[in-house]
User: What shape does this take?
Amino acid sequence: ALIRDIIQPRAQRLEASKHAAYTHFRQGSSPSSSNPRPHQAPQFRQQHSFATPTEFEAPKSQMAPTEKQLNLVKKLWAQQQEWGNITEDSPIPSERIATREAISEFIDELIGGPSPQQVKLMVSLARRRKIGIPAEALEKKAGAAAWIDSIMNGADSDIPF
Assistant: This one.
């Protein structure tokens, strides 16, 4: 749910900026009768040239992790060391924090399974709908969040994970 809360507003902003850019450039290239200030459009384009992020953004598997993600990993790694799950001098595996996708999986492993609140919610939803809870939802926090979201949004219980 936390990841969804971060990604969803970003996606909405991207869509809004793409729409604004499309509308602006469409007006700039249209006949002067529909554009009240055609002489300003080329000047604006020269000063504010930009590409839409979705066209030039690398796939998530190739993107570098963010500072927030790295700080979270450091905190979780220190917590695991305190608990004795790993030795004090063990470094964080560099291949596990090379990309955003890898670091997301690594954080999921460090955090462990779903929270007690998520488990209670999953059980109550499953009982109400008389369905089973997929193993993926019980293994990972992100899997639990995805399953809960899919059920709350009215999707069928046989959602492939």
